[in-house]
Amino acid sequence: MFSRIKASFWLLRAMPAILFVFLLGVSGPGAEEIASRDQQIADLERQIQELSKKLEELRHMPATPALPQATLAPEWTRSLNWRCIGPASMGGRIVALSVYEADPTVYWVATASGGLLKTVNNGVTFVHQFDREATVSIGDVCVAPSNKDIVWVGTGENNPRNSVSYGDGVYKSTDGGKTWQNMGLKKSFQIGRVIVHPKNPDIVYVGALGRLYGPNEERGLYKTSDGGKSWHRILYVDDKTGVIDMRMHPTEPDTLLVATWERQRDGFDSHRGEPALQDGYDAYDPIKKWGPGGAIHKTTDGGKTFRKLTKGLPSCSLGRIGLDYSRKNPNVVFAIIDCEKIGMGTPPSQVYLGIAGENAPGGAKLTQITADSPAAKAGLKVGDIIKTVDKKSIGKYEDLAEQIRAHKAGDKLTLSVARGKESLELTVTLGKRPQQPGGGGARQGFPIGFRGEDAANGVRVEQLAPQGMAEKAGLK
């Protein structure tokens, strides 16, 4: 009995410890886990203390002094000039732009030998197109005004350079330039211009300039009314003359102006010296740049009939022509025309007095008198001021020149002349303009026989008339 009571006493006494151990083993973390957690807490607290200390140190540190501005000496900056820095490699010639006018941020850029580029964000970025076709040489590009997904490309650069590449006709895209289909005119070689009807994209006009190095038949103006399935040549001059430019009337799409051009290159990139260059040509011109085929033609019925325009235009052989309508007033048309009289201005009068002059108060002052000329024989002197010609007042030198040009050789003119304080009345007999050997001087209106161009502080002599006055005087 006593032993049972003793055992129970010791059991009750040990019960808390036994219960603690039991509970610890059944539901609580082990000693190692508790130690690990405490260590992590201690490590984090230490790191926070260290970061807080560094933050306080940074807050109390002085601000970093600003770096000094880089400067160039003034004498260095005076030698610097702005220049274009792109593209980094040679890009060639830009031959045409076509803007979708309903959304001008969308446009195409055609290159002479580098394919086609498209932008849809006003030139911020460009995407290359037309890179997988048979040629990358382009003469013109045109987007349909009524549908930005319809784009036409005429291949073959239209500039008559020695390095020009030819094309293989016209191409059409119906998905904004992603894919292309050749629509014919494969022997047109070079395309001058492409125009799409403003409302009907199936009506397209293509100006074929033709082969650069010789004659070929597929030249002239072509029209399709079925989107390129068939073509009809509606204007043809000959196998040496093609179309270089054309413009459609802004409000009358059946009215077009078409510029034709007769030109040809030879196999060289510059003139070899023989025979002598024709007047008006330079060493890098094509062997023919003017010809009787050059003209401006007009149709008002969509190409059924044409008439050649002549009124007010040069009557000599024409070269390349650029055309454009005024949008504000379509009755105004601009034409830039190269012709064999280029640079000659008003043809010089064959009437000859032998003077040069300038404007002066109340008349025309003579600055040069040619020896043995009608002016010299009449007694005119440098410094004389011509007041009247046959009692008609002279207000400036051009008035005097007009009065002379209005007469013919052999006519007599009475001049009222102021010479210092003296007033004179002299009679001159007009002569015939002397011809310079070689024709260069007189034809250009320079009686001393040279041609030149503006230069710094003077005139640079570019060409001498053989055996002319300038050459004899020693000009070079």
Calculate Rg over CA atoms. 44 Å
Please estimate the helix content: 10-25%
Count of beta strands: 28
Q: What is the mean predicted local confidence, pLDDT? A: 86
How far is the N terminus from the C terminus? 152 Å
Low-confidence stretches: 1-27, 437-446
Structural class: alpha+beta
Counting H and I runs of at least 4 residues, what is the number of helices?
Answer: 7
Oligomeric status of the shown chains?
Answer: single chain
Which percent band covers the strand fraction? Answer: 25-35%
Shape: extended
Sheet with the most strands, sense and barrel status: 6 strands, antiparallel
Structure overview:
- The protein is α+β, with helices and mostly antiparallel strands and 476 residues long.
- 17% of the residues lie in helices and 32% in strands.
- The chain has seven helices and 28 strands.
- The protein has helices at residues 2-27, 31-59, 74-77, 374-378, 397-405, 440-443, 469-473, and strands at residues 94-99, 107-111, 116-119, 127-129, 138-144, 147-155, 170-173, 181-182, 191-196, 204-208, 220-224, 232-235, 241-248, 256-262, 295-299, 307-309, 318-325, 333-339, 351-352, 355-360, 363-369, 385-389, 392-393, 412-419, 422-429, 431-432, 450-455, 458-464.
- The strands form eight sheets. Strands 20, 21, 22, 23, 24 and 25 form a six-stranded antiparallel β-sheet that branches.
- Strand 24 and strand 25 form a beta hairpin.
- The longest helix has 29 residues, at 31-59.
Please provide a brief summary of the model:
The protein is α+β, with helices and mostly antiparallel strands and 476 residues long. It contains 7 helices and 28 strands.
